[in-house]
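re: that chain from earlier
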Amino acid sequence: MEKEFATKAEEVESSLRKGSFHKTIFAKFCRAINEYNLIQPHDKIAVCISGGKDSMLMAKLFQELKRHNKIPFELVFLVMDPGYSPANRQLIENNLKLLNIPATFFTTEIFANVAQVEKSPCYLCARMRRGHLYHQAQLLGCNKIALGHHYDDVIETILMGMLYGGQVQTMMPKLYSRNFPGMELIRPMYLVREQDILHWRDTHQLTFIQCACKFTADNAHDEHNSKRKSVKQLIAQLKQNDPQIERNIFRSMENVNLATVITYKDKDGNYHNFQDDYHPKH
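^ sequence. v structure.
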């Protein structure tokens, strides 16, 4: 059985290192790290593993990056159990062993607490998870946490903000924590497409947990999930007529012209209106 685990891990690593997923996944992972300057020498990064496909793949990508050792940095593979069922907890542990990922576990009661909340439980759950991850990462001496959000998460967030939040914003590739001084969040999967992650999962015949939250399972029409699903469907429909639609949505956050924005907020939270400096040119 141990030999089988090692074989699967080696198979996955080979596909990322020089195989079919080097260009579509590993190269894009490295590109995001370089383009957004996500890792500095002597960082200690908590790679946060939820048990889903994205975070498990991210862990393998970090292991591969560490092998190159061009930048001296440390890794801690961190798994928070927010109240998983025994079956889901076992699946996570089995996958970690299968993929040869040495992880540190800690337990919280987030699922039990969120189950008592009627409005926006998924939003609250995400905030609570992040807070616990920051705290545990700090205790382990880390200065960064890495989350597995990918390219499709980014463009969906952009449209969700516009259509449902009445605002123009994006999911940033990195940001400093407001509540945990000295801690930074990075998203090295920022340029990796979900379809490629799914292809990676299916090619290697891997099975991962989904959300695993009983509350979500019992409330399939949770507002946040329903909106994200609608936006995902909208993007798929638009893509049928314009294959570049996803790229254009992503690039729109890199091509903001403030001269054509009515009102915007700067990094200090101050609002600016186009009429502030609107005057005739001589």
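Strands lie at 44-49, 74-81, 103-107, 144-146, 174-176, 184-186, 263-265, 271-273.
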